[in-house]
Amino acid sequence: MSFPLNILAFIGQIALHFLTYLGQVAELAKELLIALRSGVWRLRLVAQQIVAIGYGSQGVVIVTGAFTGAVFTFQSYAKFKEFGIETTVGAVVSVALCRELGPVLAGLMVAGRVGAAMAADIGTMKVTEQVDALRVMGVHPVDYLVLPRFLAMMISMPFLVAESVSFGLFASYLVTSVGYDMPATWYMTHMVDHTNMEDLSIGMIKGFVFGMLITLISCHQGLAAENGAVGVGAGTTRAVVISSLVLLIVNFFLSIALNYVFPIGAT
Amino acid sequence: MNPTLTTMIPRTIHGPDEIFIDLRGLRKRFGSQQVLDGIDLQIKHGETICLIGPSGEGKTVTMKHVIGLIHPDEGDVYVAGMHVNVLKERQMAAVRQKVSMLFQGAALFDYLTVEENVAFPLLERGLKDKAEVKRRVMAALEAVDLDEHAHKYPTNLSGGMKKRTGIARAIIDRSECILYDEPNSGLDPIGSDIIDQMIQRMQKRYGVTSIVVTHDMRSVFKIATRVAMLYRGKIHFLGTPEELRNSPDKLVQDFINGRSDVTC
């Protein structure tokens, strides 16, 4: 085969793999919808997953949100001061945290912590035939393994995003008031005046979407695992990498789409 | 009647000559390897059929076709009149209510205790009466001599105990057919005999149809009503244990007597 044909075949192979992957994730999403509509939600498993996903992720989300808020404020304040608008730093940090940094950072942290755990747990069950054992007992793996994780993620993500934003703002407030001696009223007034429900809604919507994507991608990697421990390890790595990349890419397009619905600075 | 097994009577009683499992022209390939190359096998209700043959010849693959864990490239699988290989995963529940399976590695859920593992099929089928679940779980665990280990997690069990827990989970749901994938491997001779006796009891008293994949020839001669030997993706031998013992076929005799052609 000639060189250009080789390149073409290579690109074709990548496109085929990508389309196959999309098809598999779409199939999983379809099964998840069927499971959702069945109404058998196994609330005990959902509660266990809320503890693992929501409660267990709080520490990492709070620390990430807080230090990002602090460093963002620290860097912005100096530049804003050059223009004499340092009192507006609260407004800028607040809008940035609500619309972008809060949901994205919470999403990335959850993708790393929870996505990896989902892929590893389900992957281990797959390679040790526990998933087949479920099927043999008439239990659909998506109903038992994916649905509780999905519901727990949908419940947990808004809280995690809210925590990330809140602690980011609190840290930002500490940096300006303690670090730069800026009167608290200025910070609070600007922040409250320039942050509205639309900004918060964007953060929450993104949290839902990211949670959904992380669950689908990670559970798919778990259910597709094969070749023993090596396969589980590879699937776990892929779950984190794909979730993180997809999250960042989707965030860009979601920001544009949501800006049409909730234009920035409209109120 | 053994009181511990009275709760495991299958739901439906069929005639002894009725074919329960019908495999027609099964072919299955994994990559470049043709694992099954035209398997035809009919199993009557209440039979215990042992699948024997060298490792990697498709015994477990054949068994997994019966319960729809693997679908054939060609051929058909019928279980209790249901055409298994055309059913979708969510339609498979009807087949899986009639057939249960013991996996080679037991496939116990790590996060559940022995008792919870065994109770799992009952709870998932919607049995709400906790006392009834407990009674049936303890009966199944007694049958495999594990009632004293009910609260242990699988990580704290030996390989043999895991396997016996898997058997308790497979028999608890009153299935009409049980598939055993190497039930004796990893068991001591006494434990192995307990399992053999239990398989026999399930067949003789309750008419349970069984497929047993095994390499233990002592067990084969004890429990089988018929034996199928798989070789190179086909059924090389099919007959009663007596016919197996008296078969003039060299491959069969080498296999059952554990003789290899390898010279040192």
Automatic annotation (TrEMBL), chain A:
Main location: membrane
Annotated TM spans: 7-26, 46-72, 159-180, 200-219, 240-262
MF term (GO), any: phospholipid transporter activity
GO cellular component, one term: ATP-binding cassette (ABC) transporter complex
Cross-referenced Pfam families: MlaE
InterPro entries for the chain: ABC_MlaE_roteobac, Permease_MalE
Membrane topology: Multi-pass membrane protein
Location in or out of the cell: Membrane
Keywords: Membrane, Transmembrane, Transmembrane helix, Transport
Cross-referenced NCBIfam families: MlaE family lipid ABC transporter permease subunit
Homology family: Belongs to the MlaE permease family.
Protein name: ABC transporter permease
UniProtKB/TrEMBL annotation, chain B:
Keywords associated with the record: ATP-binding, Nucleotide-binding, Transport
UniProt key word Iron: no
Entry-linked SUPFAM superfamilies: P-loop containing nucleoside triphosphate hydrolases
PROSITE patterns: ABC_TRANSPORTER_2 (PS50893)
GO MF annotation, one: ATP binding
Every ABC transporter domain range: 21-257
Protein name (Swiss-Prot/TrEMBL): ABC transporter ATP-binding protein
InterPro entries for this protein: AAA+_ATPase, ABC_transporter-like_ATP-bd, P-loop_NTPase
Gene (UniProt): ttg2A
Entry's transmembrane regions: none
Species assigned in the record: Brevifollis gellanilyticus
